[in-house]
Automatic annotation (TrEMBL), chain A:
Signal peptide limits: none
SUPFAM superfamilies, per database record: 2Fe-2S ferredoxin-like
Name assigned to this protein: Ferredoxin
Organism taxonomic ancestry: Bacteria, Pseudomonadati, Pseudomonadota, Gammaproteobacteria, Oceanospirillales
Highest taxon of source: Bacteria
Membrane-spanning segments: none
Matches recorded under InterPro entries: 2Fe-2S_ferredoxin-like_sf (IPR036010), 2Fe-2S_ferredoxin-type (IPR001041), 2Fe2S_fd_BS (IPR006058), Beta-grasp_dom_sf (IPR012675)
From TrEMBL, chain B:
Transmembrane domains' residue ranges: none
One BP term from GO: deoxyribonucleotide biosynthetic process
Superkingdom in the source lineage: Bacteria
UniProt name for this protein: ribonucleoside-diphosphate reductase
Keyword Lipid metabolism: no
Cofactor(s) annotated in UniProt: Fe cation
Key words of the record: Deoxyribonucleotide synthesis, Iron, Metal-binding, Oxidoreductase
First-tier enzyme category under EC: oxidoreductase
Length: 96, 377
């Protein structure tokens, strides 16, 4: 469930759940999905980290993501480019 | 229909397909049917670099200290990459420019090919710096059997397309008798099929064939050996990722039928051929890994690990164009390679060419009177 967390230093931050198999990771909208997954120990393939190489493509089973800047890589529906996608709701993903 | 360097017809280029429509006339970029190609041009231009920017004096010392079988690995990879970029520096121009119909795509093809010529120049820069007689290395590219085998696979689809387009441009559609070749059928369908398979084969070249060499170069650099070379390979890998993006877009646009409905039918019919191109390339690259390590492995890398990496990366690339993965390898056996493939993680001054976001000649127009407050005359 998407929740609001009060942060003493910042304003309220929206936190979403990312489900990956049996794992669950909490992410914010402050930065893209890829670095947040990496910090929680999930290794995702990557290369350019700026949206053109498509190496970090993963499956999006359900939920909503948004791209502040449209990436150069071709992204098919049902997939998400982890290096530049901002998570906008609880989501479930699967690695390729 | 013969090719014209400046098509005098008046037509709306936004209604043309990527290929086999009208020849491009006005090179205009104010409007684009597929804006992605314009964006790729911009990105590629911002990536511009020159091989001479990278100092290789330490690489020479390192190279002399390498074991003989390691020198074999290093030089063989350079030879293979030289072959690949010799093909890529000319073939997109020769094969695709006579049939392209969109100005932004035409310019992307030229920009793409040009960047491959920089890669070729960088191999000369490296080879010149590490061996006394570069001729020996370059001459072997033609006679080395292991390289020759690959040369056939990387050039045959281009050559088929070029032959068909030549016939089409001189004789038009129909069945033509070609000396030493017999009857050759030129229809829009055979032309488009040859084009689709060419793009698929180029996609494989840039997505898979380069990566065995990349892995070896970075494995040397992990041991702090041949680091100048690794820096150049990093720049090449960044360019290749962009070129790969270009061919993936071409293939996905063709498959979707959004650009040319007939192309979607051809893509469907050719699906198995494309899978075969991927699988054949993966097999050849695994064989190449065996050849590289025939006299001994290097720390952190051997033929088996490299073979698994080829399978892994082939799976990833196939999925990027909507194909089912063909190999069991699920995980990257050399995850450390990704840190080398990121182009922007090196700490360098912004005026150095390596930072891709740094654009030459940027001007800050956001000024007001207060900015001159501390000026004294």
């Amino acid at each position: 469930m998407t929740t609001l967390i009060s942060d003493t230093e910042h304003q309220d931050r929206t936190v979403h759940r990312v489900l990956l198999g049996k794992k669950q990771v909490l992410v914010t909208e402050d930065e893209p999905l890829l670095p947040q997954l990496e910090r929680s120990g999930i290794l995702v393939e990557y290369q350019c980290r700026e949206g053109y190489c498509s190496a970090c493509t993963i499956k999006l089973l359900w939920g909503k993501v948004d791209y502040p800047i449209e990436p150069l890589a071709w992204v098919n529906s049902g997939y998400v480019l982890a290096c530049c996608a901002i998570v906008k709701s609880d989501i479930e993903i699967a690695l390729l | 229909m013969s090719y014209s360097t400046f098509n005098r017809k008046k037509f709306d280029s936004l209604q043309e397909p990527m290929f086999f429509g009208e020849n491009v006339n006005v090179a205009r970029y104010d409007q684009q049917k597929h804006p992605i190609f314009e964006k790729l041009i911009e990105k590629q231009l911002s990536f511009f670099w020159r091989p001479e920017e990278v100092d290789l004096s330490n690489d020479r010392k390192d190279f002399l200290k390498l074991e003989e079988h390691e020198q074999h690995i290093f030089l063989s990879n350079l030879k293979y990459q030289t072959l690949l970029d010799s093909v890529q520096g000319r073939s997109p121009n020769v094969a695709l420019l006579p049939i392209v119909s969109l100005p932004e795509l035409e310019t992307w093809i030229e920009t793409w090919s040009f960047s491959e010529t920089i890669h070729s120049r960088s191999y000369t820069h490296i080879i010149r710096n590490i061996v006394n007689d570069p001729t020996k290395v370059f001459d072997d590219i033609i006679v080395n059997e292991e390289i020759a085998k690959r040369a056939v696979s990387v050039s045959k689809y281009y050559d088929d397309l070029i032959e068909l387009v030549n016939l089409y441009n001189t004789l038009g559609l129909g069945t033509h008798h070609v000396p030493e070749r017999g009857e050759v059928v030129v229809t829009m369908k055979t032309l488009k099929k040859a084009l689709y398979l060419t793009v698929a084969s180029v996609n494989v070249l840039e997505a898979i064939r380069f990566y065995v060499s990349f892995a070896c170069s970075f494995a040397f650099a992990e041991r702090t050996l041949m680091e100048g070379n690794a820096k150049i390979i990093k720049l090449i890998a960044r360019d290749e990722a962009l070129h790969l993006n270009g061919t993936q877009h071409m293939m996905n646009l063709m498959m979707s039928g959004r650009d040319d409905p007939e192309m979607a039918v051809i893509a469907q019919e050719c699906q198995q051929d494309v899978i075969n191109i991927f699988v054949e390339a993966a097999q050849q690259e695994r064989d190449w890994a065996q050849y590289l390590f025939k006299d001994g492995s290097m720390i952190g890398l051997n033929a088996q690990i490299l073979g698994q990496y080829v399978e892994y990366i082939t799976n990833v690339r196939m999925q990027a164009i909507g194909l089912e993965p063909q190999f069991p390898t699920k995980n990257n056996p050399i995850p450390w390679i990704n840190a080398w493939l990121v182009s922007d993680n090196v700490q360098v001054a912004p005026q150095e060419a390596e930072i891709s976001s740094y654009l030459v000649g940027q001007i800050d127009n956001d000024l007001d009177g207060a900015d001159f407050d501390d000026f004294d005359l």
